[in-house]
Amino acid sequence: MKIAVAGTGYVGLSIAVLLAQRNTVIAFDVLSEKVDMINQKKSPIRDREIEEYFRTKKLDLKATLDAKEAFEKAEFIIISTPTNYDEELNYFDTSSVEDIIMKVKSINPMGTIVVKSTVPVGFIKQMKQKYQMTNIMFSPEFLREGKALYDNLYPSRIIVGEKSDRALKFASLLKEAAIKKDIPILLMESTEAEAVKLFANTYLALRVSYFNELDTYAELKGLNTKDIIEGVCLDPRIGDFYNNPSFGYGGYCLPKDTKQLLANYKDVPNNIIEAIIKSNDTRKRHIVDMIEKKSPKIVGIYRLTMKNNSDNFRASAIQDIIALLKRKDIDIIIYEPIVKEGTFANCKVIDDLQDFKEKSDIILANRIDENINDSISKIYTRDIYTRD
């Protein structure tokens, strides 16, 4: 069948590649450079499996700037456009999703719209009423940045927000294209599916914050963080995973999803949800306090990306730390190969790693890799396991 995918970020592109193994997939985007790269079988994002599939698999995939070419006669139209969080409105900016819904209504009103973009709880219900359409449903994604296609090939679960034959058909498309065979499929109403997405990511943010606060305690009390974490995590109810301390959670999803969930809690009693967001801010301030105590003249930031093998630093915790350090009049230099300009956030970007290491009194590294092992005496990090 023909399937359209609107938006070719890590969610949309990974789903497009997944489904193009067995279906005709037309990917729609507004950026010509991304469209050109996809049509040349080059991935515009860093993802090992996507890059491998472009090289080795026969994919029935085409990218286009033409909405009509993408959406016309498509049985499913998957929306995976960005929904950034608006700090002033305390709400997701869902305008890109609504724009696609309107385009689909005018081009292919019989096609089934599947929203993969993260949205507020109750969004699909509102869209059905606003546009007088019944053919819209929500299907949350649970993908890691840099491992998006892998997580589509080996999904923990498939959830579709509608109890219908077409919902089951869509879930089956995802399951049949995956490598993993024993995949739980859950069909529920879209409002519950929207809640699953926000609560799942907020729990992950909670876990990050918990181990970060454990680490803050150990650091200030002079204790061995690793020993404590290992002792705690050998309890099978807790588990030895997602427990490596960091400078704070960031990225595409966790910052905005936690804030959106808190906004959805208006008039609903809560303590934990709000505390998670505050904890992340407290962690960043603690990192800055620890750096300030060392009285450095120049602080070097090693990578704006917060994960190994990542090319994204959107909403990374280190950016807030940079802002806090600048308020204290601490000079900052940055090493980030992805940034081609000479400055970032009014800080000098140095493209020569050796020069960067020599000029830095302290090097802040959320994650350590082999490139800076020779400067370990200068490094300030909370990375215990040298992994994400």
Structural overview:
A 6-stranded parallel sheet has the order 3-2-1-4-7-8, with helices on both faces. Helices cover 42% and strands 14% of the residues. It contains 14 helices and 16 strands. The chain folds into 2 domains: 2-188, NAD(P)-binding Rossmann-like Domain (Rossmann fold); 197-380, 3-Layer(aba) Sandwich (Rossmann fold), CATH 3.40.50. With 388 residues, the chain is α/β, with parallel strands linked by helices. The two termini are 38 Å apart. The protein is globular. Strand 11, helix 13 (317-327) and strand 12 (331-335) form a beta-alpha-beta unit. The chain has helices spanning 10-19, 32-39, 48-56, 67-71, 95-107, 123-131, 148-153, 165-177, 190-221, 225-233, 254-264, 272-292, 317-327, 353-359, and strands spanning 2-6, 24-28, 61-64, 76-79, 85-86, 91-92, 112-115, 136-138, 158-160, 185-187, 298-302, 331-335, 343-344, 347-349, 362-364, 379-380.
- Class inferred from helices and paired strands: alpha/beta
- Name of the CATH homologous superfamily of the largest domain: NAD(P)-binding Rossmann-like Domain
Estimate the helix proportion, in percent: 40-55%
CATH class annotation of the largest domain: Alpha Beta
* Physical arrangement of strands within the biggest beta sheet: 3-2-1-4-7-8
Low-confidence stretches: none
Fold-level CATH name of the largest domain: Rossmann fold
Continuous helix count: 14
Indicate the overall shape.
Answer: globular
The percent range for strand residues is 5-15%
Largest sheet: 6 strands, parallel
Kindly state the number of beta strands.
16
Order of helices and strands: EHEHHEHEEEHEHEHEHEHHHHEHEEEHEE
